[in-house]
Design goal:
CATH topology of the largest domain: Thrombin, subunit H
CATH architecture of the largest domain: Beta Barrel
Structural class: alpha+beta
Number of domains: 5
Strand content: 25-35%
Helix content: 10-25%
CATH superfamily of the largest domain: Trypsin-like serine proteases
CATH class of the largest domain: Mainly Beta
């Protein structure tokens, strides 16, 4: 080859004659690394340069190809074990999420939850809305009268049920029945009615019933959550939710077709209430009945065509329970009166003007006279005669209330002890 060297890989090296210029030749192995025919597994050599040739930086060391190599087996084993653990954990978590979320595949998805994994509804807390609904529904009934449907709720184990008077109006015992939330039915009969308070009591021919828990409607506050139960538009076992929108909302209802005019200071709620909810319970967050759903307001249309627009009214349970107790005990309800006749409808000044005062009646005994204008009763503002009648009937007979009234230009107060009417 050119350069005066022989091709070699080191095993048959021969001395190279000195060059003609008289300089010492470089060692025979100095160009071995650049030899393309060199055996890569032959022992490596270190090139030692002479003093005259050591002006540049030393060459990088060459790794010994015969040195022992590091094993990758432990690293591969660690990676394999990590991958297996990650796969197992991922599969387990996926199964758990699928089962809990109800999105499992195959037969498990099509057949639903197994007995070991009960439906989520069974795990609702008793004080949740679902828990309250579960507690109350067995005590709610659908009242069926020929051609009509309403609601009611059980108040005693032996079968007494409170409902609205207008639900059972015209009912005959052989046309009255009730249905329970479990689908069972029973015949019923009317125990007594009070058209003016719109409360009626019926007795179901079935014993060992679950009565509702009765609350205190006087303890309600605007904004409290409430549930309305019943059979709106014949959709039995319906529960709707809302809040108390107002208290002591005076209501004058009925009387359009010659029937009685009903007055009461109602609980206003925005829970969805429709035809068929009448007589059903209004329940607080503790599962206690605080009212009897009775009236709705709607825009236009007749009463039978009215639909929910977020304005529903319930008779306070304190009043309904008192009336129902009178009906059960005596077959007749007592109405609370103030002993005066008032003008209903518009007046020239705010308040309820007394047209006449009964001699020796509660108002007369307290010093009120005909022509006086009642402006407040127990702190409640009275704007007209309807307000005064409805608010008076809220109280039980023998209650003493504070009455503020105006006589001419002077405002006065009096304590009036209300009584039951003599009818």
């Amino acid at each position: 080859m050119s350069g005066g060297t022989d091709v070699t890989d080191g095993w048959n090296a021969r001395p190279t004659p000195p060059p003609a210029n008289g300089q010492q030749p470089s060692p025979w192995w100095s160009d071995a690394l650049a030899d393309p025919w060199r055996d890569p597994y032959a022992p490596a050599a270190v090139v030692v340069q002479s003093a005259q040739q050591s002006s540049g930086p030393p060459p990088e060391p060459v790794a010994d190809p015969d040195a022992p190599r590091r094993s990758y087996t432990p690293i591969l084993l660690i990676c394999l074990v990590t991958a297996l653990l990650a796969g197992g954990l991922g599969g387990t978590l996926g199964y758990v999420f699928a089962v809990r979320g109800g999105v499992g595949g195959g037969a498990a998805s099509s057949l639903g939850a197994t007995p070991d994994d009960p439906p989520a509804a069974a795990n609702r807390a008793p004080d949740s809305l679902a828990g309250v609904a579960k507690k109350v529904l067995p005590s709610v009934v659908t009242v069926r009268v020929t051609g009509a449907i309403g609601s009611g709720f059980v108040v005693s184990k032996d079968g007494y049920v409170i409902t609205n008077d207008h639900v059972v109006e015209g009912a005959e015992d052989d046309t009255l029945s009730v249905a329970f939330s479990d689908g069972s039915t029973a015949s019923a009969k009317v125990v007594g009615r009070d058209p003016e308070s719109d409360i009626a009591v019926i007795k179901v021919a079935k014993g060992n019933l679950t009565p509702v828990a009765i609350g205190n409607s006087d303890s309600l506050a605007v904004g409290d959550p409430v549930l309305a139960f019943g059979s709106p538009l014949a959709l039995v076992n319906t529960v709707t939710a809302g809040i108390v929108s107002a208290l002591d909302r005076t209501i004058e209802a009925g009387g359009e077709t010659g029937g009685p005019t009903r007055y009461y200071a109602a609980i206003q709620t925005d829970a969805a209430v429709n035809q068929g909810n009448s007589g059903g319970p209004l329940v607080n967050a503790a599962g206690q009945v605080v009212g009897v759903n009775s009236v709705i307001r709607s825009v236009g249309g007749t009463e039978t065509e009215a639909g929910n627009i977020g304005l529903a009214f319930a008779i306070p349970i304190n009043q309904a329970r008192r009336v129902a107790g009178d009906i059960i005990d005596t077959g007749k309800a007592r109405r609370t009166v103030i002993g005066a006749e008032v003008a209903t409808g518009g007046t020239s000044s705010a308040g309820a003007r007394l047209r006449s005062v009964e001699p020796s009646g509660p108002a007369a005994t307290a010093g009120l006279e005909a022509g006086d204008v009642v402006t407040k009763i127990d702190g409640h503002v009275v704007e007209d005669g309807t307000d005064l009648i409805a608010l008076v009937r809220k109280y039980p007979p023998d209650s003493t209330v504070s009455v503020e009234y105006r006589r001419g230009t002077k405002t006065q107060t009096a304590s009036v002890t209300l009584v039951a009417d003599s009818n």
